[in-house]
Design goal:
Layout (H helix, E strand, L loop, with lengths): L4 H15 L12 H4 L3 E10 L2 E5 L14 H13 L5 E10 L2 E8 L2 E4 L1
Length: about 110
């Protein structure tokens, strides 16, 4: 048990910070940083002139960045198609957000969250 004011404040701060890692209904953790982040985990294939190959949308993100919400994914896919890298992109995956886990599909270069 803390005996001085400094120890008491340190203990209270540690306890308060620890609460941030507990779950609240509908959220991953309590801190806004965690509960408002949106991640997409997708597997994409691009088609160009009848040939298909894997597409890595994460290569367009800043190093160390993992957040890929659906609007950003759509922007990356649109860029790939607009610049002629691919004729179309298709795929599927999951979106993790404060609303929970949802399916995501990419059909004919359009992102659809289900």
């Amino acid at each position: 048990m803390p005996s001085t004011l400094a120890e008491l404040l340190t203990f209270a701060l540690m306890l308060w910070m620890g609460v941030g890692f507990t779950r609240r209904p509908g959220c991953w953790f309590r801190w806004k940083l965690f509960s408002h982040a949106t991640f997409s985990i997708v597997t994409l294939t691009g088609t160009k002139d009848g040939r298909t190959e894997p597409v890595n949308p994460y290569a367009e993100l800043s190093p160390g960045s993992l957040m890929l919400p659906p609007p950003v994914l759509q922007a990356i896919i649109s860029h790939y198609v607009r610049t002629g890298r691919y004729d179309r992109i298709d795929g599927h995956g999951r979106v993790l957000s404060a609303r929970g886990e949802q399916r995501i599909e990419v059909r004919n270069s359009r992102v659809v969250v289900r």
